[in-house]
Specification:
With 413 residues, the chain is α/β, with parallel strands linked by helices. Helices cover 38% and strands 25% of the residues. The chain is globular. The mean pLDDT is 89.
Length: 413
């Protein structure tokens, strides 16, 4: 029997960020994961500006240490390819002071990034890390939770549970009663390739919107050692309706789509093509209850438009870690008190998720979507807005205003 005030289930980026934030605030925690690190995690492998900003808030030195590791590369922009092969390049340097600001984003395999964060946690005296422990039993007690593996070999008594164990969380489904909804869920596949040609010299990530493959998108993210994370994703509802085999679709794209296939002629597939599910933050849900909060993928907070989940996982973990000390100080872990967590999460992410969901719907209308991206290709100002759209909610709201498009067409935006 292990007793602790705070138990964090899941040592991915969200769980690790929660533990690190609590640690730097002076509060201990127990961080538990069923895996033994390093372990692979299927993902797009991109670390956005949101991840960078939150980690920098937790510990400014952590990014410097991460930047010195050979398993990551700096990424300084994004490229959007539309129907017909027209490309829009959006460099990040325009919005960053390269002399003082941290690198805007990184690309790194999740196996390496998650292992880095776990090692950072192990360095902290007030974080206890337990690997290889699969929490499958959640028993409510009078003052918290009794958690254990299936056989009861390990038992953990805690006052507060932070649920950070991903998209397939048993706690999310059986305790919080949040279920997968095909309309609000996406499926994706990821592969690693070596030798993909014509990668951007500043490691731009690439999103390709291909004529015969909407409402999904294909991506190429650069990695160290000449490798690339290559994938394809689409709404689960569409996959089911059209009976789409995502693995076959990915192979078809790299072999047959003209604007892509030429870059893969000399490329080598490394390992298997693997699939994963993305519970999207397309609607507001209840993310907390008596003595618990859900964060990251376990809270269904993945961006509906970009599929990016690490940023919201880290951010929601940060928010949870800010509230937990107040719970401890006031001895109040009630659902009512913890509503403050939900309110802050949706205050900082809610409109962004809502607008992303609305923009995601445009993928079902190729002509409209292509029109938007063609405007971006011709207008430098609009290219800047496209980048900001992925990080700034005020810009997204502007983009959803029909009058904006009219002004842009008249070259007045």
């Amino acid at each position: 029997m292990i007793e602790t005030d705070v138990c964090i289930i899941g040592a991915g980026p969200g769980g690790a960020a929660t533990a690190l934030r609590l640690s730097h605030l002076g509060f201990p925690s127990l961080l538990v994961d069923k895996a033994v690190f390093p372990r692979d995690k299927v993902c797009g492998d991109g670390l956005t500006g949101k991840v960078v900003a939150i980690l920098n808030r937790i510990d400014p030195g952590i990014l410097e240490r991460f930047g010195q590791t050979p398993e990551q590369i700096d990424s300084w922009g994004a490229m959007f390819a539309m129907i017909g092969g027209i490309e829009t390049h959006v460099p990040y340097r325009k919005t960053y002071n390269t002399a003082t600001d941290p690198v805007p984003s990184y690309v790194t395999k999740r196996m390496d990034f998650d292992h880095f964060l776990v090692k950072e946690c192990k360095k902290r005296d007030n974080i206890q890390v337990m690997e290889g422990v699969n929490i499958e039993v959640h028993e409510r007690t009078t003052d918290g939770w009794l958690l254990s593996d299936k056989k009861g070999t390990i038992q953990i008594k805690c006052r507060m549970v932070v649920v950070a164990n991903g998209a397939n969380s048993l706690f999310t489904r059986h305790v919080a009663n949040i279920q997968m909804e095909p309309k609000l869920h996406a499926g994706a596949v990821r592969a690693y390739y070596k030798g993909v040609q014509r990668m951007h010299p500043e490691n731009f990530i690439e999103l390709h919107f291909l004529k015969n493959y909407l409402p999904g998108y294909f991506w190429i993210f650069p990695l160290p050692n000449g490798e690339a994370n290559v994938g394809f994703g689409m709404l689960t509802e569409t996959i089911s309706q059209k009976k789409i085999n995502l693995k076959k679709t990915l192979l078809e794209i790299v072999a047959e789509v003209p604007e892509v296939a030429s870059r893969f002629k000399e490329a080598e597939l490394i390992g298997d093509i693997v699939g994963y599910g993305l519970p999207l933050g397309s609607k507001r849900r209840v993310l907390s209850g008596d003595n618990y909060v859900l964060i990251g993928d376990a809270a269904h907070l993945i961006d509906p438009l970009t599929g990016e989940g690490i940023g919201n996982a880290v951010y929601s973990g940060y928010i949870a870690a800010d509230l937990i000390p107040k719970c401890l100080e006031q001895n109040d872990f009630s659902a009512k008190f913890l509503q403050a967590y939900d309110e802050r999460v949706y205050r900082v992410m809610g409109m962004e998720l809502k607008v992303s969901h609305q923009m995601q719907k445009l993928l079902k209308h190729p002509m409209i979507f292509n029109f938007i991206l063609k405007l971006a290709a011709k207008n430098v100002q609009f290219s800047d807005l496209i980048y900001a759209m992925f990080k700034d909610i005020d810009v997204r709201k502007r983009l959803m205003n029909p009058s904006f498009w009219w002004k842009l067409a008249l070259n007045k935006a």
